[in-house]
Specification:
By secondary structure, the protein is an alpha/beta fold. The chain has a single domain (3-18, 34-229, 288-304), classed as Collagenase (Catalytic Domain), CATH 3.40.390. The chain contains 7 helices and 7 strands; from the N terminus they run H-E-E-H-E-H-E-H-H-E-E-E-H-H. It has a 7-stranded mixed β-sheet. Helix 2 packs across helix 7.
Length: 306
């Protein structure tokens, strides 16, 4: 989308939305597990592996896989073509309007998403059918929500801000807990207003998250939103990440390393897919989806985001 068109179509939505601070948070339970959603995957920095939100249940996985199998059976009726995903960006700032991201950062993030999903980021990247069309940007002044935790803020903030249905991508930017770059919900059956992607504001292009400020956290998390697991899912055990052309990778083998010679699953073919967007390398390292991942995302769109 040309920048002039983007400005024209979003000028009304770009006005700051002032929201009163939420009432005192209700805190229940203790420990890290209280900050984990039941069907999400996160991207974290090295040393913060305990914040990985890979807790989609086996029952949810089975339900998603049943629907995906049905989508593959009916794939011959899918004529292909570009899939345009309406995208709503929700910028959450402090009460004094600090801590947000600029229009230019949002614009740059959309460019990163589209280049990555087009396959323009590497000669070895597979193109996908997805293109993301910015429909609106809103700004909310709420210090409570800005200091975002899943347990306290995910539901109230999303209940107030979420727009559209299962085929609308809602992106939320806020200040997350240290080490957490973002998280997303899988397209589990009957998604609700919690569906969407939450991003560390400093992970957008031009942010201050060193090594993670080129916009690839959004690419990684949108992959989860389209039903991709981490490439190190299940370590070296079948079914891995359920994609046939991504080599097995072990979570215990340091998925943060950008070493093309690394083979953390020596009993399986291929070296670790360290450059894959669904691995844990930094933004300069990850630059591609595989053809199998592109197919899986399309199948998930047809089956789970209908």
């Amino acid at each position: 989308m040309k920048r002039g068109m983007w400005v024209a179509t979003t000028v009304l939505a770009l006005a700051a939305l002032s929201v009163s601070p939420a009432s005192a948070k209700v805190v229940s339970g203790t420990g890290e597990n209280c900050d984990r959603p039941a069907a999400g995957h996160a991207r974290v920095m090295p040393g913060y592996e305990h914040l990985d939100l890979g807790t989609v249940t086996r029952e949810q996985q089975r339900a998603m896989e049943r629907k995906l199998r049905h989508a593959r059976k009916t794939a011959e009726v899918d004529r292909g073509g570009t899939i345009r995903v309406p995208t709503r960006v929700h910028v959450i700032r402090r009460n004094n309007a600090s801590g947000g991201v600029s229009n230019a950062q949002v614009d740059a993030q959309m460019q990163v998403l589209n280049r990555s999903f087009r396959g323009d980021t590497s000669p070895d990247a597979a193109p996908t059918r997805f293109r993301f069309v910015l429909k609106s940007v809103d700004r909310t002044n709420n210090t409570d929500w800005h200091e975002w935790t899943y347990r306290d803020d995910d539901r109230p903030a999303k209940r107030a801000l979420h727009q559209g249905g299962t085929r609308t991508l809602n992106l939320y930017t806020a200040s997350l807990r240290p080490g957490l770059l973002g998280y997303a919900f899988f397209p589990v059956p009957t998604p609700t207003f919690v569906d969407g992607v939450v991003l560390l504001n400093e992970s957008l292009p031009g942010g201050d998250a060193a090594l993670y400020n080129l916009g690839d956290t959004a690419v990684h998390e949108v992959g989860h939103w389209l039903n991709l697991y981490h490439t190190f899912e299940n370590n070296c055990a079948a079914p891995g990440d359920r994609v046939g052309d991504t080599p097995y990778e072990s979570y215990d083998g340091n998925p943060f390393a950008c070493n093309e010679a690394m083979d953390s699953c020596p009993g399986k073919p291929g070296n670790d897919p360290v450059h894959n967007f669904s691995s844990y390398g930094n933004d300069a390292c990850i630059d591609r989806f595989s053809a199998g991942q592109a197919t899986r995302m399309t199948n998930a769109w047809n089956a789970l985001r209908a």
